[in-house]
Amino acid sequence: MSGIKGQPRVDHKHAAQQAREMPGQWVLAGTYGSSVSAKHAANQVRTGERLPAYRPARSFRARTEVTQNGVDLWVCYVAPSDQHTRDFHESITSGLTEDLDAFSRRLEQRGTEPTARPA
C-alpha cells in the first residue's frame, strides 16, 4: 500500500487472503480517495471482475464507508457453499424455486409417464 497522495491505499490480494481466513468477518481492504472509485472497486470485489483475488464471483461481499481520510473499502468472504445455500433458501421463500419434496415428486411422475417424442 502506498501513501502517495491521490492514489488509493489498497492491497486487494492481502485483503482477500485475510478475509478467506476469517469467513463472515469484515476486513479493511484499503482506502480510496473518492466514493466513486470505492464503489466501483466494491462492485469488482463482488463480481471478481478485474480483481482475481476475489474469485469466484459472488464469493465476497463488499461495502464502503466514508471516513476523514477517504472512503474505506471493506470486504467479507462468504464461503461459496454457504452463498449457494442462502440463494436457494431465498429463492424458495420468494416462490421462484420448488422445495426438494416437490422436485422429487415431479421427477417420480416423469418417470412413470410415457415420454412424448416430437413428430
Structure description:
The structure is a single chain. The protein is an alpha+beta fold. It folds into 2 domains: 70 residues, no CATH class; 32 residues, no CATH class. Helices cover 42% and strands 21% of the residues. The chain has 4 helices and 4 strands; from the N terminus they run E-H-E-H-E-E-H-H. The chain has a 4-stranded antiparallel sheet, with helices on one face. The longest helix has 14 residues. It is elongated, with a radius of gyration of 21 Å. The chain starts with 8 loop residues before the first strand and ends in a 7-residue tail after the last helix. The model has no long low-confidence stretch (mean pLDDT 80).
Keywords, separated by commas or semicolons:
alpha+beta; four-stranded antiparallel sheet
Spell out the blueprint of helices and strands.
Layout: E1 9-10, H1 12-21, E2 26-32, H2 35-47, E3 60-67, E4 70-77, H3 80-93, H4 100-112
Large-scale geometry: elongated
- Biggest beta-sheet profile: 4 strands, antiparallel
Tally of extended strands? 4
Tell me the Rg in angstroms. Answer: 21 Å
Count the domains: 2
Q: DSSP strand (E) fraction?
A: 15-25%
**Low-pLDDT regions:** none
Helix-residue proportion: 40-55%
Secondary-structure element series: EHEHEEHH
Q: Round the mean pLDDT to the nearest integer and report it.
A: 80
Overall structural class, as computed from helix and strand content, comes to alpha+beta
Classify the oligomer: single chain
What is the spatial order of strands in the main beta sheet? 1-2-4-3
Straight-line N-to-C gap: 66 Å
Number of helices: 4
